[in-house]
Every structure is written in C-alpha cells, then in structure tokens.
Amino acid sequence: MVNLTDSDWAGMSVPLLLPAGRNLTIRGSPDLPTGPPILRMPTSPVLVLLDNCTLVVEGVVLEYFVQRNTNFFRTPSLSFLDRSPDGTQGALVVTRNLAAINALCLPSETWEANVAAAARPAALPGVQRFQSNIDQGGCVNDAFVPPLKRCWLARYLVIDTATPGAQLNAAGNPVGSNHVFLLLNVTVLCTVVLERSCVASLGPLGCLLLFERGVAGRLLPGATSPAPPAASAFTAAGGGGGRSGPSPMLTGCIVGGVVLLVLLLALSGLLLRRRWLRAQPSPPPPKYLRESSRDGTAPSASIESGTVNPRGSDEEEKEDGRELQEKGMAPFVSITSDLGTLGGLAIQGSVFATADVISDLTPLPAELAVALRVEASAGCSDGREAEGTGPSVDDAAPVVRLTGLVLGKGSYGRVYEGTYQGRLVAVKQLLEGQGELSPGATREAQETYLQELQVLGRCDHPNIVKVLAACVVDTARPVIVLERMDTSLDKMLYGSPGTLLPLRLVLHIAIQIAQGLSYLHPTILHRDLKPANVVVSDPQGEAPLVKLSDFGLSRLRHSVLRTDRPEAGTPAYMSPECFDLNCDAITHRTDCYSFGVLLWEMLAGVHPWAGMTAVQIAYEVVLLDHRLPIPPLRAPGGSEPERWPPRLRSLLTACFERDPRRRPAAAEAVKALALALEDLDRPPSLRPSAERPSPSALEQPQIVLIPISTE
Question: Cα-Cα-Cα-Cα dihedral of 483, 489, 491, 495, to 10°?
Fold first, then answer.
C-alpha cells in the first residue's frame, strides 16, 4: 500500500507544473502476490497539467482518490491533481486497467443513466461503454483479503468513457478543471450504494449531498445492496451533441433527479405610487464629482490621461420649485484600457451603468417561479429538526429540496443550503411564528421578504445576487431561493486574523461592489452595505466574483426615499443623515457613504468604530463631525503607506462628506478605483503621490481624524 499525503510534498515548491507536451505515468507492479497495490491519496492538489500533457495511472487500486472523498462520477478528479490554467489545451488524464474504491455509488440503473448521459469531449469521439452489476462469484467477504478478491455491495465496470474533469469549489458546486479524463477498463468497487427510496425522494444529487455530509445517517439507517436486476449486456450510449459544462456526469445526475413542474400560482404585485421630489438649492459639488446630465448623454473618462471630456451638453437641473423627474440615465465612464486584464485582475461585469433605471414599473421576469414547494431533509446539521416543509402550495409547483446544512441565521429566519433545478442554492426561510417570533414581528418579517423579492426579482446584473424562485404571498413562511456563493467578504477579511487583503484584491472587490451600486442607483437604496452583505465566489482565484446581497431594507422609489426609519441599518456604516431622526428623506448617496466605510475597512483590516456603541458613533459622526482616520495609523493596514495612495484618500474623503450631494456617485467611484488599479502597474516613479497628485485628487475640506481601537 502507498499512502500519499501532504507530508510527501514537504520541502518542494508547489504547485508542481508538468511541462507542456510531457507525459507522467504512475504504474503499479503486476508481480505482487497480493495483486495490484493500493494507492491512497488523501492529499491536497499539487500537480498541474499544462498544454498537451498526459498523466497515466494504471495497474493500481485507488482509494481516497477524489477531493473531499466525494463521488468520482459527480466530480471527475484525482485528489493530488490541481486545476489546469484557463485556456489549457490537450491536457489528458488516462486511468486504465485499475480498480477504484468508490465511497458512494448510485443504484445501478441510476448510475447507468448518469454515465450514458455524459457527453464525450470532442477530442475523444466515440460512445460511452460500461457495464453494471458485474458478477462477483468466488468473492470472499473478508476485509483483509485483496480488494479485487473481496465482496462489495456492487461492482461496476467502465469499459471506455471520457468526460471533462471537474472539482468542487468552496460552495460545493463543480467547476471545470480544464483537463479531460479517459477511463479504460476501470472496475468500480462500491462501499455504499444509495437506497433507491432516497434517490427517488431527493433526487440523485440531493441524496449524494445528504450522505456526504452525514445527514443521511439519520435518513438512511442502513444502505444496502441494490436489488439485483437482470444481468445486463455491455451498454453503449452515444454522446449527445451540443452538451457542455464543467461536469457532464453531474449533468446526467441532475437530469435524472430534477423534474420540471408546471407553474400554477402567479405573484400579483401592487405598483408603488411614484414619488416626486421638489428640487432644493444646493452648493455645487467639486467638478470632478459632478454627475452627467440625465438626458441620455454622459462624460467619458480616459483612464490613461485621467481627464474627463464632454460627450454632450450638461443640462443643469432646474431649481425653480417644479417637481423633478429622473429621466432614466445614470452616468457612466468609458475606460480605454482593457479591463479584462486591468492590473492583472479581471474586472467582471461592465463598468457602464445601465441605461434602464429599475422602478416599480419594471416587471418581474417571466421565468421567475413564484409558487414553490420546500421539501426538508430528515434533519439539520445544527442538530435541530427541519422546520416543516415550507409554504403550502399545489403539489405541481417547482420543488426546492433542503440538504440540511444551515448556512446562516438571522432574527427573522434561517438560510439553508438546498438544491433547485440541479444546482446548489441558498434558501432563505422565515422561522415558525409560534414561540419564536411575536405576531407583529412575523408580519414585519413577511413584509421584509416581500420587499426583498420586489427589489431583487427585478435586478439582473453580474454584481447583484440573483433570485431563482420564491413564495412570499399567501403563506405564513415566505421562502426566497437565491444563487449559492462561496463565502462572504466578512469571512475573507476576518477569517485569518492578522492577514490583510492585498491592495490589488481590495480594488478588484471594491470595483465590483461599486458597479453593483451603480446599477441599483438612483432608484434602489441598499441601506445596509457591509462586509457580511457582500458575497464572493472563487475567493482564492485571480478574479473573484463579488455580488451584493441581503436587500431586506431596500425599497423601490423614484429618486428619494421618504421614510420614518432613517436609522435602519448598521450604525458603523450609516451616514450622518441616517442618525438624524428629523430626516424623513434619504437618497442613494447614503449608500456611497457606506461604500466609503467598507472600502476603508478593507484597506485598514479592522472593524470601523471598533468598541463603540451606536450612540457613541452617532455622537462622533453627527455632533463632532469626526470621520474614520485616513490612514488609521494604529490599524494593521494603516502602517503601510502604499495601501493609501492619493486617489483612494481622495475618494474616501469625498465619500465621507456630510452633505450627501457632495459625495461621489457609484459610477464615479468605479472610475477612481479603476484608475487606482491601473496605477499599481505603473513604475513607482510615475504613480501619483503627495508631491505629484492625480488629476482627480482635488483639494477637499479638512476632516478631523480620531484614533481608533484595534480591539
């Protein structure tokens, strides 16, 4: 037996790159009296295949060979093999004449359908060939005999199958690994075979997830061998054309477990009354923060010169007391550099603000399912019993199945992991009203869910979390199904104490947050922007995807939100006007203040206003007109001057303005951040500095700075 662990790579520089065009073979000795050697691989991924590389594994018995010990046919992978770089061509993994001990197997008929549905890559044409229920005559029911002579719950044979490789990301979703697997004469030895009743009730994916996470121990008291069907001959299935994706094996699993149901219940929404704001005279903002006119024209900014050139006339808004009507065009900036690779980090999504302003007249998408059934698992990972089966709707409604994993908890409800239409999702569900929430709190929570659906359901932007389905009316327990992300910005900031996010990553994240805000504004206020409400996928990658979430405090309005709760939100991120109880109207510029605090927190590496109560923060911000120090010398990130270049200092100072109308729009923040990101690629002598400020680093009013606590 060979046991490959992380200690075997000690002293080596990892990852190990297999040079382009080279081959590597791992071959077991055929002369051992006990049969092929067992190769165990509970190790981290260290080997990377480059263009036209071939890795061959043969003549062994593989055990613990898939990352997280998951099902190989869900994520074709080897534990020591890392993801190949994007754009890799011709990377191939060949496993032949070997056996693989699979910790978890599907019943034979489901396994056959799964393998048959997998489309072969174009580089390896042919048909998928396999056989289930291999005869185990003469086997010995003894764990001490060699694996190939041992009796197993089931034994399958992969004769000739090809599939793209895949790995699980932090959220548990398969992502392509940019190399291809070819399986030739591979015997699958099944330690556990899932019950057909579990697969029938939860679907193959849901049943696999439950068993992998230990929940199935309560659901399936004993997994047994499947009922032996009639002996099957060798099966051939053609690879369907046009199928693609990171894991065709998963696709087959999903197709076998998800049934598309008829939508019966339509959500009736009331159109909110449009509000008009009387114009009030205000001092003009600094020129570099002045927004474009809203008549369809906007200024463009050159990232190389840092100058703004007019593309159309700037029509001044009339201040004669007439009610103003926003005309639906937010400002945008035109970046001349290739933002796909700006500063070494891809900027996902467009830096152009949408020309379609979201309003209460924006229809909900027709494909959004608003009648939904929630099927709970047998138990939750926190030890509690699942809280019912959710809204009571018609049996023909689409189904979301909870896996039992609790992702988060709040005052009103919980966020569970679930599966919906073959993908992992986050399911927000209201707590049971009895015993946990008062009737008044329950009604408020139900209204919050409806408001969040009204806002998020109308949003379609790469930096806004997407609603997939919901059931929030005519039910005591509203449910919203959201796309599943890997982690939150809060966990990235404080998950590893003492570690600061690199400046380049901070700018990349900030740009995507600002792009999301630019899409929302001016008609949607987030009102609770903070790291916990920013979700991230692929946090360890070169270009993480960042999205805004938790829109429970958001409202659709025309341009100004009239409210009797200006104080709603998290005190450390609230703008001065939000602490003013006499303020009955706030605008999207309150989000710009919160964005400044969030950017400051990423740079400083500490919580803003740490150790202060809400009253103390209000006293500092409103009465004393104090702001967070730029830079905070006692914070971990404050001692590094390079983290606080003039462009960022200028942007932060503008975001912290007391007068909301003098704060930058989100689109202007995108421009400033993109310029700062590009500055990182300039030689130090050409970067803006205190002696040589950037064109936009204009003089700002003095702000009193106070020390902060790092506790």
Answer: 140
Given a cut of 80, whether residue 267 has pLDDT beyond it is: no
- Enter the tokens of residue 177: 């690994």
Q: Does residue 545 form part of some domain?
A: yes
Convert the pLDDT of each residue in 89-134 to its tens digit.
999 999 999 999 988 899 999 999 989 888 899 889 999 999 988 8
In a domain, 625, yes or no: yes
Residue 453 pLDDT > 50: yes
Last residue of a domain, one of 218, 234, 257: 257
Q: Which token pair is 690?
A: 């205190």
Question: What residue ranges in 210-307 does DSSP mark as E strands?
Answer: 235-238, 277-278, 300-301
Residues making up the annotated binding site are 428
The binding site for ATP comprises: 428
For tokens 């075997």, what's the residue? Answer: 8
Determine contact, residues 206/120, Cβ cutoff 8 Å: no
Strands 38-40 and 61-63, by their bridges, are parallel
Q: Is 90 exceeded by the pLDDT of residue 14?
A: no
The residue to which tokens 């042919």 are assigned? 126
For 76, the domain range is: 2-226+245-257
Question: Virtual CA dihedral for 618, 621, 625, 627, nearest 10 degrees?
Answer: 160
Domain boundary among 212, 237, 257: 257
In angstroms, the CA 372 to CA 469 distance is 7
pLDDT at residue 447, as a whole number: 76
b/e per residue 375-397 (b: at least 16 CB within 10 A): bbbbbbbeeeebbeebbebeeeb
The rounded Cα 472 to chain-centroid distance in angstroms is 24
CATH number of the domain encompassing residue 558: 1.10.510.10
- Nearest alpha carbon to residue 342 among 683, 677, 670: 677
Name the H helices within 64-123.
108-117
Residue 690 belongs to a domain: yes
Nearest to 161 by CA among 128, 112, 123: 128
649 with 697: CB under 8 angstroms?
A: yes
What is the per-residue burial (b if ≥16 Cβ within 10 Å, else e) of 313-333?
eeeeeeeeeeebebebbbbbb
Radius of gyration in angstroms for the set of CA atoms belonging to the chain, rounded to a whole number: 29
Residue 196 to residues 135, 157, 226, 274, 380: CA-CA distances in angstroms? Answer: 21, 20, 8, 55, 22
In a domain, 213, yes or no: yes
- Model confidence pLDDT, tens digit, residues 651-679: 999 999 999 999 999 999 999 999 999 99
Q: Structural domain tally of the chain? A: 2
Least confident of 284-298, 401-415, 502-516: 284-298
Report d(CA 264, CA 673) in Å as an integer.
46
DSSP letter string, 555-581:
EE-SSSEE-S-TT-S-GGG--GGGG-T
